[in-house]
Amino acid sequence: MDIRKSRTLSEDVLNTLRERIISGEFASGAPLRQNPLAKELGVSPIPVREALVQLESEGLVVSKPHHGSVVASLSLDDIVEVFEIRAYLEVPLLRRAIHNITERALEEAKEVLEEFDDALLQQKVQEYGRLNWQFHSLLYRPANRPQTIALAQAYHVRADRYTRVQLRNIGGGVRSQKEHRQLLILCRERDEEGAAKMLERHILAAGRELVDFLADMDKDKRP
Amino acid sequence: MDIRKSRTLSEDVLNTLRERIISGEFASGAPLRQNPLAKELGVSPIPVREALVQLESEGLVVSKPHHGSVVASLSLDDIVEVFEIRAYLEVPLLRRAIHNITERALEEAKEVLEEFDDALLQQKVQEYGRLNWQFHSLLYRPANRPQTIALAQAYHVRADRYTRVQLRNIGGGVRSQKEHRQLLILCRERDEEGAAKMLERHILAAGRELVDFLADMDKDKRP
Questions:
Q1: Residue pair A196/A94 in contact by the 8 Å Cβ criterion
Q2: B147 closest CB neighbour out of A57, A81, A148
Q3: Which of A176, B4, B79, B115 sits a CA distance of 20 to 30 A from A143?
Q4: pLDDT at residue A186 greater than cutoff 60
Q5: Please, what is the average pLDDT of chain B?
Q6: Closest in B57, B59, B145 to A54, CB measured
């Protein structure tokens, strides 16, 4: 288990549980019991409770009064909606930012895409979400809209949980990387309309592809 | 204090603290100490901690490691952003819903506006947020997008905290009600473009008016 050095114990617990859900180690519907988790992590039940409340607000955990918490299972419709919400937030962020993205940030974004290529080649699926958000957020930062960026990031995390399943199974990401490079060119050209349309297509296509993949997986499981 | 009968103690504590922040009883920057709050509410510190974590994810509370929680104070820029996020989420919800809003829902929405008129006349500011969300959500429900609606509601709650200050001070709401009625007519006519534009204007104008009012208030406080 990779507990990174972060500021507090509560954050460590939160990050550990989030990572386990996103990675698929804790499957949809799996119960999350406070006391066994606390014991396993060597902490008191309080930071575990707090983490579960936070993860519930992030949509990764569902809890019912008097019934404890389970890992949230999103339906295919829910997944489509996660990607729609990303588009609602990220397209206006890019529009606000595009005329103020510095050359340095564009250069950095290009380097992230190269790192991304390596991660895809080596099938390091756990790197995908981090690099994807790093690339996107470099383009959004000059919008100067911190709440919108934080919210968009939360929906990236939710989407990431499913995207990893797909990448692990079909080694995707080639389409995505091609679109990232096109988006970067449009940003360099300060083509606001072109970049906004490209980004919307990129996000919604990723959602659709993922849902098609998961629907196929479901079909295969049937007799 | 109005602790409504809800499913669990934790929810009661959460609702009570949320209401006190939104109403302005707990001012921006005020410390929220677990043990005194728990004692006052006659509960253990655990549900108070949980409520603070949840309120943090709603943007009403800020906590710093080792420094406890305080009521979040939003800058004027933050407030503008809250209304922008509302527009990003609610305009697509209305577009998805408009062709499927039933006659019955339109009738209900009209009744909510009449109740709203009464509340404004009698300066019942605590009713404003509830009625405002009831009106808007009646129009969004047929979009069949539960996560987007829940997220939009969370941003209504954040906006409400400030809108109440304004209503209490200048008895506003007349412009807002006029716009609500225009919006309802456009929904009746299934005028998607017209309704989308009207709604966007309505949300962003409310934000601008509020920020102008708060900026004026700040100016008056200066020597």
A1: yes
A2: A81
A3: A176
A4: yes
A5: 87
A6: B57
CATH topology of domain B9-71: Arc Repressor Mutant, subunit A (1.10.10)
Predicted local distance difference test score (pLDDT) of residue A221: 57
| Cβ separation A81–B46 shorter than 8 A | no
CATH code for the structural domain at B76-221: 1.20.120.530
Which chain B positions have a beta carbon within 8 Å of A59's beta carbon? 147
The interface predicted TM-score of the complex, written ipTM, equals 0.78
Over residues B66-84, the mean pLDDT reads: 88
Same fold, B9-71 and B76-221: no
Q: Does residue B146 sit at the A interface (CB-CB below 8 Å)? A: yes
Closest partner residue to B7 (CB to CB) among A56, A65, A146 is: A65
Cβ-proximal residues to B221 (8 Å cutoff; 6+ apart), any chain: none
Look-up of token digits 């004026």:
B216
Sketch the domain layout of chain A as residue ranges: 9-71, 76-221
A82/B147 touch (CB, cutoff 8 Å), yes or no: yes
